[in-house]
Amino acid sequence: MATTPMTYSPSQGAERRQKQQQMRRMSQELDWKRSDGRSFHQCRPACLQTGATNAASGSAYAEFGATKVIVSVFGPRESKKAMMYSDIGRLNCNVSFTTFATPIRGQGSDNKEYSAMLHKALEGAVILESFPKTTVDVFALVLESGGGDLPVIISCASLALADAGIMMYDLVSSVSVSCFGKNIVIDPTAEEEACQDGSLMIACMPARNEVTQLTLTGQWSTAKTNEAMELCMDACSKLASIMRSCLKKSANLSS
User: Does any domain span residue 3?
Assistant: First the structure.
């Protein structure tokens, strides 16, 4: 007895793998096109806003393409630990994801690795001596993960610290690039990050020309590393200008 043929579709996981394989093949070509139409060296439009939450000492919201992040800063407030160990302030950082931040539902949780990296990127910019024996808490929440999450978190957190009136040597802006064969693309999307050959991220204080954090994955030649760093530093400088404009606009509205 013959059965009626039935159509079927691969699972979402299989579809995702097929899409990544297709993109990996495309990315090896010198003239491939990015899915959002950007050029290789063009960042996503940045939407920044301070005062995102009323309950915090300072806060900021950042939207870079599909990536959406909100950061709240509390303090300085009394810290028993700070009194026990030193006369300088303490900076605590926590990064978490909502349960709907990624395509896989229910994956929202605290990210210890990102929390540690956020702390590393910010601690060199914050003047800890300005709030002795107290603690400043930075809580970053990723509302939607659309690629380049950590750089957006770092930049947004720096803006929130400034909004809270925390003394800093300079704002910290952060940008990442992905490597695809001979190609380097800046400010990658989640789709691009899923099939990259390597990545480089820089967090820096542009006005002081100081790098607070640099992470590198994959195999990079010296020439390609230098090119990627120059791209990131230039983009960080331009992003910092947008961040300063956001702070000035906020100050003018409140005055």
Answer: no
**How many whole angstroms separate alpha carbon 150 and alpha carbon 174?**
8
- Per residue in 217-232, pLDDT (tens digit) is 998 999 999 999 999 9
Domain coverage including residue 92 = 40-254
Distance in angstroms (rounded) separating the CA atoms of residues 166 and 129: 11
Determine the angle formed by the axes of helices 112-123 and 149-163, rounding to 10 degrees: 50
Q: Position of tokens 């990996």? A: 24
Q: What are 173-202's pLDDT values in tens digits?
A: 999 999 998 889 999 999 999 989 999 999
CATH number, residue 147: 3.30.230.70
The C-alpha atoms of residue 50 and residue 93 are separated, in whole angstroms, by 18
The rounded distance, in Å, linking the Cα atoms of 77 and 191 is 41
- CA proximity to 90, closest of 102, 78, 104: 78
Beta strands in the chain (DSSP E): 46-50, 58-64, 67-78, 90-97, 134-144, 173-180, 183-186, 198-205, 210-217
State percent of the chain over pLDDT 70: 81
pLDDT value, residue 9:
37
